[in-house]
Amino acid sequence: MRYSQLLIPTAKEMPAEAEVISHQLLLRAGFIRKLTSGLYTYLPLGTAALRKVENIVREEMNRAGAQEILMPMVQPADLWEESGRWQKYGPELLRFKDRHQRDCCLGPTHEEVVTDVARREIHSYRQLPVNLYQIQTKFRDEIRPRFGLMRGREFLMKDAYSFDASDEAAEESYRKMREAYIRIFTRCGLEFRAVEADSGSIGGSFSHEFMVLAKTGEDTLVICQSCDYAANLEKAKAAMPVKPESSEAVQDCVKVATPGMKKVDKVAEFLGLSTQQVIKTMIYLADSELVAVLVRGDREVQPVKLKNLLNVTDVELADDDTVWQKSKLPVGYIGPVGLPIRFVADQEVMLMVNAAAGANEKGHHLTGVNPNRDFTPAMVGDLRQVTADDCCPLCGAALRLTEGIEVGHIFKLGTKYSEAMKATFQDADGQEKTMIMGCYGIGVSRVVAAAIEQNHDQNGMIFPLPLAPVQVIVLNLDLKNEAITAAAEQLHQELEAAGLEVLYDDRDERPGSKFKDADLLGIPYRVTVGKGVEKDGTVELRARCSGETVMLPLAEAAREITAKIKAELTAG
After folding, report:
1. Taking Cα atoms as reference points, which of 471, 520, 442 lies closest to residue 59?
2. Do 202 and 112 lie in a common domain?
3. Which of 256, 294, 316, 474 is the most buried (most CB within 10 A)?
């Protein structure tokens, strides 16, 4: 490929609209152009990078036994009504009517459509297991699209769906996909972790997210520093609390005046206690119903854990006015003893002895509060947010909090969709059974952005070799010099003949501009053809990642570069 014939509109200035480095560099390097909020056109190099990810994904999915299909992007509402998601999915589902006034949507995901395929075409246990996948555009009407390809409204995604006859077979399908995902992201040359995660609006009993580690990640990960434990902050657990041994006598519950003291730290200081000895009572709206949540005073409530414990669609912290209007309880002085609304407790609270808590009366708290004697919550569970001070739930070692970018998510769906949509089969005894499903997604376009977030410097992108739109860029530093131009042309042709992807910079530009553009584009290897050709018959090979340079004889350059790149790809 000749640079002069390609659409690569690079820019020197950093785009003002771009908030994260991948967005900035993809725009500057001419990989993408914005059409409107959250929608982007992929220019030649951007499209080439997408295809690299696609090819790796396709090869590993096929290797794992999945079969590629292609489903419509426009989906009829009646399928979503069958599954119960038409109203539940939320405003991210772009709904519209066709010319016949039938309700439709643009597919953000394809569980309903693929389940419809399965119930129509799969009738016997002999046809199972089946794993169907596609690589296709998705649309989610994000309220605030941001970060370029990281959170756009339209994006390229690989989504796969498994159908099995038994729980054991479904476990095997999940295992195969987990292993396939590990191979995919390893081949992409990314540093990543598979973490336990919440299933969100997709549903199901269990899921893992595949997170690329990067400082600009939107998600916080909890990672053990000694073992393989890793989880999204929403799902993360700490070592199970143990009730401390104490010779302290159980005290009577006593009301104490605490005027103007609504904050845990102020109450603890006034009462001569630590914040760990105070029960903090937070009031949430759970599907519009007031629910109180008890956590230790030094802890914070994790809303996703609360939502899952209550089995509700939405939870949000209630404001002071709402709490007063609905319960007549004074915020800052609320506690579990005699609490007139439903309340749940974190498991740590149930181990507390002689704690302090709100008295449900303005300006007053209680001391000597003990669980089971003085209050009994409706439910108890792991409701607190894990911190870096906690210990691993598996091995007890220290935990580390870091940032990550979600690039893949796998779910055990069970019968959530197949039961609702009556996707059944006949087993070996002729009995009708419901298919057991799994769901497996990869954000193809997000992988490109995540790779840049993880691999860049002040000069531009540094693509891992497997994802680079081209593998080598050849710079002709003097088009007017016949010897240099002949050598550059020869090397370009030899590298392409060897099967490499080559960009030949044949533009009539200053050498400095060519060097800067080569770095900006992040191409793994740069071959500079300049005065060395005339001086001693050599060209310079530079690795973008390490900055290491070597001089190669022109006659041997193509062979040595080809061997180096193929060895690196094979090793990866």
Report:
1. 442
2. yes
3. 294
Is the CB of residue 152 less than 8 Å from the CB of residue 39? yes
Rg (CA), the chain: 29
- Asked if 492 and 408 sit in the same domain, the reply is no
The token pair at 473 is 């860029």
| DSSP tag of 209 | E
**Which amino acid, 25?**
L
CA nearest to 458, candidates 379, 529, 520:
520
Tell me the β-bridge partners of 406. 211
Each residue's pLDDT tens digit, 220-254 = 999 998 998 988 888 899 888 777 676 778 999 99
- Give the strand pairing for 538-543 and 549-553: antiparallel
* Displacement of CA 383 from its chain's centroid (Å): 22
pTM of the full structure: 0.85
Instruction: Tell me the pairing of strands 525-529 and 538-543.
Output: antiparallel
Yes or no: say if 10 and 30 are a contact pair by the CB < 8 Å rule.
Answer: yes
Tell me the HSE value of 102 on the side-chain side, using a 13 A CA sphere. Answer: 10
Domain that holds residue 294: 254-381
Question: Do 73 and 13 fall within a single domain?
Answer: yes
User: Is the domain of 16 the same as that of 114?
Assistant: yes
Task: Give the tokens for residue 3.
Answer: 């640079």
Mind listing the pLDDT tens digit for each residue in 333-385? 999 999 999 999 999 999 999 999 999 999 999 999 999 999 999 999 999 99
